[in-house]
Amino acid sequence: MNIHNNILNLISLKGKTAIVTGAASGIGSAVAMRLAEAGANIALFDVDKHKGVQIEEDIRQIEIKAKFYACDVSLRSDCQKAIDDVSEDFGNLDILVNNAGVINRKDIVELSEEEWDHVLGVNLKSVYQLSHLVIPRMVQNRGGSIVNIGSGWGIKGGPKAVAYCASKGGVVNLTRAMAIDHGKQGIRVNCVCPGDIHTELLEREAVQIHQDFGEFLAEAADRPIPSVGSPEDVANAVLFLTCQLSSWVTGSIFVVDGGGLA
Description:
48% of the residues lie in helices and 15% in strands. The protein is α/β, with parallel strands linked by helices and 262 residues long. It has a seven-stranded parallel beta sheet, with helices on both faces. The model has no long low-confidence stretch (mean pLDDT 97).
């Protein structure tokens, strides 16, 4: 037996189609590229067309089919159109990575209703909307894998981030409920909860709380593994949860945070 080939087969996503939301930058683009490297065809969802098309071209450079779809995941109409288009363009839908996210660093008194609705719409409602549309197609295809991107602040609270904490806490428990409901249909549902990851979102977070980014990074790196994470750290966890290495894993909350919650 060729052990090397056996491991590659377990990791391979060849012939699969993966949808990645928030795919134009940060964690989303890293996840899209990692799944493409494992052989999956990639449907990229984002509101940023310029960056999204660039990621599409990057993936095509490794001879993997990829297509960008302009999609505001908080809008039902955008989600419906994007899923219909992906079904037509790719056929089977095997993997859904609900990664799109925003943060607003305010406490509950400072936060407006519109800001609450925006954060909950992008971070939590989108998981419902896309899963609602994709799961029937996965059932027809006799299985699939959904990975929701949560946060360490979906497990414990954080300062001045009430909408974000509420939305990510919802993602964590929504993951468990979906795993219970759809396991018998061959659909695995898991959640990756990152700690601080060096992305544009993290830079914007520092701006929101009026803190120097270097200072912000130094504080974020105060954990057992003394650094902030990279988007690729999260992408590696997503690959594990979408390939056959995790075939008996569902309903899990997979923390990737350098020991921050330890």
